Each structure stands twice: as structure tokens, then as C-alpha cells.
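Hello,

Our lab assistant flagged a job as stuck in the queue for most of the afternoon. It eventually completed. Since we weren't sure the result was trustworthy after the delay, we are filing this so someone can double-check. Below is the sequence as submitted and the structure that was eventually returned. Let us know if re-running is recommended.
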Amino acid sequence: MKTKRSISRHFVTSRLCLDHVSHYKAPPVAAVSPHTVERHMQLVEIVMGGTVWFRSGKTDLKLGCGALFWHIAGEKTIHRTEPTAPYECLALRFFESPGGCPEPRPPRLTVIADRHRTLELCAELLRSFHDPSVERQALSHYAEARLLWEVHLGRMRSSESPPASLEKACDLIEKHFGHVGLGVAEIARTAGISEPHLHFLFQKFLKKTPHQFLTDRRMREARLLLSGSAQAIKKISASCGFLNIETFYRVFSKHTGVTPNRFRRTHGHPMMFARAAD
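-- returned structure --
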């Protein structure tokens, strides 16, 4: 009974009132002008299609359908996209009722894993808001609760084991990192998911992008070969998946802080240099 009363009191005194719902499609540009959320307002954006770039800490995330952004006062709306795949989203504006109960803010970013459910939710909220027969207060309560439910599901997924699609992607990288043509598109295709969802899974479970993960694997192999074999650096470059030795030198130096030659001199076994001298 205590739980039921608590839930009822939350909805009776809910602090958010749904003020506006609209559909937005970005023009084919790299970025649109962001909107700063005003005082006493909260804005939720649900990406329905296209591509959105979002800065999380020091990492740029590439996101697509299902990305749910919850902005509070002072934060800017999503605005970075791609000219060839401009995003479209459903925007919901909530007014904070002064008599409501303060609640902890939801996370800025949640991802709804199911594309079909995302589009159904957006269609339902847009249709209901513009239907004069729908009671606005009831819709406001429903929209807030439904969005918080999606946030809750997102938090539950974050404590799950890595999905099979991510394991499949990592297996592909482990087996074929030495192939020059291996890239994010092929990894996503093999894993059976979209590129934006692949980026999301890598960030969520591995804290790095697929490209960073692939580069790390290539660099690990390069360090092993440089320190433990007498192979020519050009051959090592090719076996680690680099198109040419110039690219290999640039990436290795950026990754380790030293050139391949310097790394070999510092970490290579003395017998390797003796064989090379012979």
C-alpha cells in the first residue's frame, strides 16, 4: 500500500506539464543552430532517423534512430548532423510546475534499442498531442511516465552482459584486423546491426569507438612484432592492416609517442639485432 500511495502522489503532483510536441527534420547541413532550453523548461528529443553527433565527455558519439536526449534549462539541443543523412526527431517541451515534487534529472542520453518501438512512441505522442479530444493533463502524465520508463530500461541494459552482436564484431576484428579493407561498415554488417548502433554498443560496453578498438588491436600486434621479431617494418605495417608504411608510421607514433624504429631499438631483444647485423 505504501508503494501505491507513493506512486499516486508522484503523478498527482508531477512537476512536468507537457507544453508542446512537434516533428523536426534538419536541413542537409553539418550543423543547425542549437536552441538553449529556457528556465523552468525541459526538452526531450527522440531521434527518428538520420545521424546525430553528440559529445559525451571527450568522445563524439554517432547516433541514429532511438537516441533519446533529455535536456534541462541551460543545455543546448542536438544540432550536429551529416549533410547526407540529416536527422529528424520528435521534440517534446515540458514546463516545470512550481508546485511539483523535484525529482533527480534523467540522464542526458538514453538509447531506445528497438527502432519499431521508437517510431511507434513518437507517432503516438505526436498524434495524441494534436488530438483535441485527448485530455492534456492525462497525456502529460503519460508522456512523462513513458519517457522515464524508456530511461529506466536504458539503465537496466547498461548493467547487462555485452550482446551477441558486439561479441561478433569483436571476433571479426580479432580475426581480420590485418586486412587493409576492414572498416566500420563491414564490422556493422557482419554483426547484423546498423553503424550508429555499433558505435553505441562499443561506447557503452568498451568505452571506445569501433575504429579506436580496431586501431588498438593493430597497435598491439605491431608492438609485439617490433619487439619480438626481425621482420622489416614495411612487412609489419602490411600485416597489421595498413595500406602503406607512411600511414603506419603516423598512427604508431601518435599511438605510442615514438616511431616504430625507436620502439624497436628500445624494446627489441638484443639477439634480434645480432641476427639483423649478420
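-- support follow-up --
The delay was a queue issue, not a problem with the job. The result is valid. The first helix runs from residue 2 to 12. The beta strands are 16-25, 41-49, 52-56, 59-63, 67-72, 80-81, 88-96, 109-111.
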